[in-house]
TrEMBL record:
Protein name as it appears in the record: Squalene cyclase C-terminal domain-containing protein
Organism: Engelhardtia mirabilis
Alphabetized InterPro entries for the sequence: SQ_cyclase_C, Terpenoid_cyclase/PrenylTrfase
SUPFAM superfamilies attached to this UniProt entry: Terpenoid cyclases/Protein prenyltransferases
Composition-biased stretches (Gly residues): 139-149
Length: 523
């Protein structure tokens, strides 16, 4: 039997070799855990590398097309009043506080120039109203109401034809010399006349355009017209719009703060805005008027009155204070926000500068005469006028009415008022060809003061009224055509205000019969 060779046969097996030691799961796990720190380090390194890559601004490395933005500045539209469409304003009937009835006295003197009343609807005398003068008869008292514009009446007391004719002629002259943009130009007004030459003379200072525009507007508003009604409503609307454009929206100041006269400009312009707002309420105009009033309050010295400096420096004067009192009074009538402490501060100032023995009120201190341009002080002597006395008397009347604090018979206020009247009777209006006596500023304040007091002091008013008519009516220009209706600016302030000033304030004097009774203090 032959022997077989099995050496070429290879047998595979998964069984562990006898010489190899078999690894258990625990052995493998132990081995893996031994290498774990290096795995952790590797993992952490990859994480750090990932965040580094993420932080790189890859987008910035690629060039982008530059984007150019263009913007145009669009000027906001000017805030000019516009009458609200079909807005009905509910009329609120004022509550009248009844007091003892005072018997009316006839105070209008008929002259040779008096004829049948012109067919017009001019406002009538305030003393024909059924409202009572509630400050010893001293006060705003009876005033206009009703009528188609709310400020006029359908009928009125007869006034001399000469006065009425002069009043209308003055308004026409002002209308003809208004600039196209609505303002009255102190020195360039002559070129506005489109009538037969020569052009009128009498230029004033360009620094007063704002104040003169306000003064001219007061003449039209005092006539009874408003921005929305009356034969001069377009003239008023255009002028008010121009004043609004001159106002600094951040401060409320109307015009520029140049020289000392800027405060007069603002006061008169603010008065015009407030009266216009009263006559034809408008939300945009109300905002302008309130801003102007706010500026007036900021300009006042604490517990006292006003002068030129803003912010105030604790100096006061009677002239500026007078305009401010009337501006605030009109603002209150127009239902604007007014600080009533301003009235008490003003009254305190008038007391401080009024001589208790004579009743004369000073300019910046007791015993001081009326202000005059320095270079004209010798020609226009202060002793010929009681302008500041008239200012204080009229302000006392209105402040008593506003604060509802009647001046009583035993009151010191009444004594000062009566002495002031005596002083005004010593200096009646008189027109002089050289202008040395022509203080129309004085005539304006005294006319309104005496007319408001005419029921108690009728003889004083009658005497003043005749002198005023004799001074104003014959001196009003009737020719050439571009002069017709104006007054020559030959008084102490004519060089500053010019013909626009003298004509506007002349018209305001003639409106004494109805303007204050209707416009200030007795709404």
């Amino acid at each position: 039997m032959s022997q077989q060779d099995y050496s070429h046969i290879h047998v595979e097996t998964t069984l562990p070799k006898p010489w190899e030691e078999e690894q258990t799961f625990n052995d493998v796990l132990y081995d893996w855990m031994g290498r774990a720190p290096w795995l952790a380090i590797s993992f952490a390194a990859h994480i750090v590398f990932y965040f580094i890559l993420a932080a790189i601004p890859w987008d910035e490395m690629s060039k982008k097309e530059e984007v150019i933005l263009q913007a145009d500045i669009i000027t906001p539209p000017e805030e000019i009043f516009e009458e609200p469409e079909e807005e009905e304003i509910e009329e609120i009937e004022e509550e009248i506080i009844e007091e003892p009835i005072i018997q009316d006295s006839e105070v209008v003197e008929e002259t040779d120039d008096v004829s049948e009343d012109l067919d017009s609807d001019l406002p009538e005398s305030p003393f024909d109203s059924n409202q009572f003068n509630d400050v010893i008869g001293i006060g705003g008292g009876a005033g206009g109401g009703g009528g188609k514009t709310g400020g006029r009446r359908s009928g009125r007391k007869k006034v001399g034809k000469g006065v009425e004719k002069a009043l209308l002629a003055g308004l026409e002259w002002l209308k003809d010399h208004q600039s196209e943009d609505g303002h009255w130009d102190a020195d360039d007004f002559p070129v506005e006349c489109d009538k037969e030459p020569p052009y009128s003379d009498g230029e004033g200072s360009a620094l007063h355009d704002v104040g003169l525009t306000g003064l001219a507007l007061l003449a039209f508003l005092g006539f009874g017209d408003t921005m929305n009604d009356g034969q001069y409503h377009e003239t008023i609307r255009s002028g008010i719009s121009w004043l609004q454009k001159q106002q600094d929206r951040s401060t409320g100041l109307i015009g520029e703060q140049t020289a000392s006269n800027f405060i007069y400009n603002h006061a008169i312009a603010a008065l015009a805005l407030c009266e216009a707002q009263y006559g034809a309420p408008n939300p945009i105009l109300k905002k302008s008027a309130q801003n102007a009033v706010n500026y007036i309050h900021r300009a006042r010295n604490p517990y006292s009155a006003w002068r030129y400096q803003v912010p105030p420096d604790n100096t006061n004067d009677t002239s500026v204070t007078g305009w401010m009192v009337f501006a605030l009074s009109a603002a209150q009538d127009a239902k604007l926000n007014v600080e009533t402490d301003a009235y008490r501060g003003s009254l305190s100032w008038f007391d401080e500068v009024t001589d208790p023995t004579t009743g004369r009120t000073g300019y910046t201190q007791i015993g001081e005469g009326s202000a005059r341009p320095r270079h004209l002080q010798e020609f226009y002597k202060a002793e010929y006028t009681e302008a500041l006395t008239a200012v204080s008397v009229l302000c006392r009347v209105f402040i008593a009415n506003i604060l509802n604090e009647p001046i009583k018979d035993d009151d010191r206020q009444k004594e000062l008022v009566e002495r002031g009247i005596e002083l005004m009777m010593e200096h009646l209006p008189e027109w002089s060809e050289d202008g040395s006596l022509n203080d129309m500023y004085y005539w304006y304040y005294a006319s309104y003061a005496l007319y408001q007091l005419s029921e108690q002091y009728s003889s004083a008013w009658t005497k003043w009224e005749k002198a005023l008519s004799d001074a104003l009516l014959p001196s009003q220009r009737t020719s050439p055509p571009c002069f017709e209706g104006s007054w020559d600016p030959i008084g102490p302030w004519g060089h500053e205000g010019g013909r626009v000033y003298s004509t506007a304030i002349g018209v305001l004097c003639l409106e004494v019969y109805f303007r204050y009774g209707k416009v200030l203090g007795s709404r």
